[in-house]
Amino acid sequence: MIQEFKTFIARGNVIDLAVGIIIGAAFTAIVNSLVVDLINPILGLLTGGIDFTDKYLALSGNVPEGASLAAARDSGAAIFAYGSFLMAVLNFLIVAWAVFLLVKVVNRLQRAAMRQEAAKEAVAPTGPTQEELLAQIRDLLADRANAA
Length: 148
Prior knowledge:
This protein has helices at 2-10, 12-47, 69-74, 82-123, 130-147; strands spanning 57-60, 78-80. It is mainly alpha-helical. The longest helix is centred in the C-terminal third of the chain and has 42 residues, at 82-123. The model has no long low-confidence stretch (mean pLDDT 85).
């Protein structure tokens, strides 16, 4: 059983999955920072700091006038929290846009690296083909045979 476990762990796909999860977590931190620290403040300036999170409709129950969403929920009333949903959709769209931009930049960098590699390969001198080498060897052997 231990040998089977070692074989399972040593397989490349398990290692690849672990690396993918770790890189994904790090990438999530980058995307969250991009959204929270850079994009949201700009959007806040443009929209005047509009936040829909506390917008709701009380469907039933007794909710004090002007109560926050948390207070309305704590009162036990049935709440239709459309503001939270709208903010979740907006945050999703912002995160999706940020991921799109980051992937686009990474793809551009990869293409540039591939072009550099292709340029290096194109510049590298090519040696003689196998047939050309064999012809040279044949000619050298023939010259030696004629000289002797």
